[in-house]
Design goal:
Elements (H helix, E strand, L loop, with lengths): L1 H10 L3 E2 L4 E6 L4 E9 L3 E6 L2 E6 L3 E4 L2 E2 L7 H6 L6 H13 L3 H14 L4 H13 L3 H14 L4 H13 L3 H14 L4 H13 L3 H14 L4 H13 L3 H14 L4 H21 L14 H20 L4 H13 L3 H13 L6 H11 L4
Antiparallel strand pairs: 1-3, 2-3, 2-6, 3-4, 4-5, 6-7
Helix pairs in contact: 3-4, 3-5, 4-5, 5-6, 6-7, 7-8, 8-9, 9-10, 9-11, 10-11, 11-12, 12-13, 13-14, 13-15, 14-15, 15-16
Length: about 375
């Protein structure tokens, strides 16, 4: 019985091949390097970096230089089989190529989907994603706008268009789109996060805090929310609250390098704020040194920088923060040593920090 089953399978028009790299040339001229894993009379299925994509036989010109012969399909099958590829098929191919970072192939297939169905909202969205991947935000925005025209209640279209506007530094347009997405879906956490980031970059810290509060309310375990709110509080010069939020972020994610580095900087600058409030408190630049409390705070600041670098020795910002902390502590040798470390690792130090350190240390390097 097993032999009969085996021979019956051999007579079937479908068989599976091991996947290995082959060049498939379509009659359209498009070339795809993929592994053929299945052939039938009507289609060829390929494995493109883990994405399974099917092509109709009549679309293919050659596989690895060998022309595809006209298939001898029985007349009865020809009645069923047509040479029409649906918009859905092209769309699925476009999504598969997009998921693998092959943006040109994605655009090509999504173009075909939209030729067949010009009202295909999801095809406009994914073609916009592909254009964004090709660093073409203008074309991405055009596709997202078309998707919005076809479906004004599509919050994702507003969100991704907001991201594209953000990439172009068109902050007001980006904020407007994130706001529209949130109007449609008030629980769209990522829209709150992205809008908060734009508010932070625009120094609109009150609105940033309001958005991040919403994020934390919806997800109290999200370490990034506390980190972002810490940045907003630091921008507002509320360093105690910033330190508290950075600490909460670290509790939720003990490997949060950015939170360690920024908490370290906040510890150091908190000393300067106390000095402004209390004229009798030592400042950062007195040669007689820092009192016990401030020494302890600087130790905490440096400890945070060290922890960030323990997690990621290539994290250049931690060296920059450590340089600034040493500068505030009047330890210019170590400040310059960290600046030099950044430069050896191929990083760049902001001219403002270099000028500040040169002035404070009285030397050029």
């Amino acid at each position: 019985m097993r032999l009969c089953v085996f021979f019956a399978l051999l007579r079937c028009s479908c068989f599976t091949l091991p996947a290995f790299a082959e060049t498939i040339v379509l009659k359209s001229g498009e070339k795809i390097n993929a592994g053929v894993i299945e052939k039938t009379d009507n289609y060829v299925r390929v494995d493109f970096n883990g994405a399974l994509i099917s092509y109709r036989t009549f679309e293919i010109k050659s596989i690895d230089g060998k022309d595809i012969e006209e298939e001898k399909i029985p007349a009865s099958a020809k009645i069923i089989e047509t040479n029409i590829i649906t918009a859905e098929e092209y769309f699925k191919r476009g999504v598969a190529f997009y998921s693998k970072g092959e943006f040109n192939h994605a655009v090509s297939n999504l173009n075909n989907a939209l030729k067949i169905n010009p009202a295909y909202v999801e095809a406009y969205l994914y073609r916009g994603f592909a254009y964004a991947g090709k660093n073409n935000p203008d074309q991405a925005i055009a596709d997202y706008t078309k998707a919005i025209e076809l479906n004004p209640k599509q919050e994702e279209a507003y969100f991704v268009r907001g991201a594209a506007f953000g990439a172009k530094k068109e902050t007001e347009n980006a904020i407007a789109d994130y706001s529209k997405a949130l109007e449609i879906n008030p629980k769209y956490i990522q829209a709150y996060i992205n809008r908060a980031l734009l508010y932070l970059m625009s120094a609109n810290n009150e609105k940033a805090v309001a958005d991040i509060n919403k994020v934390i309310e919806m997800n109290p375990k999200f370490a990034g929310g506390y980190y972002l709110r810490g940045l907003a509080y630091a921008n507002k010069n509320n360093l105690e609250q910033a330190i508290s939020d950075y600490t909460k972020a670290i509790e939720l994610n003990p490997r949060y390098t950015e939170a360690y580095a920024n908490r370290g900087l906040a510890y150091a600058y908190n000393i300067l704020e106390r000095s402004k409030i209390n004229p009798n408190a030592p400042t950062a630049y007195v040669s007689s040194g820092i009192d016990y409390l401030d020494k302890k705070t600087f130790t905490q600041a440096l400890s945070d920088c060290d922890k960030a670098l323990e997690i990621n020795p290539q994290y250049l910002d931690a060296y920059v923060v450590r340089a600034r902390v040493y500068m505030l502590a009047n330890d210019f040798d170590n400040a310059w040593a960290n600046i030099h470390k950044v430069e050896r690792l191929g990083g760049a130090v902001k001219p403002e920090l270099l000028a500040e350190l040169k002035k404070a240390s009285g030397r050029e390097k």
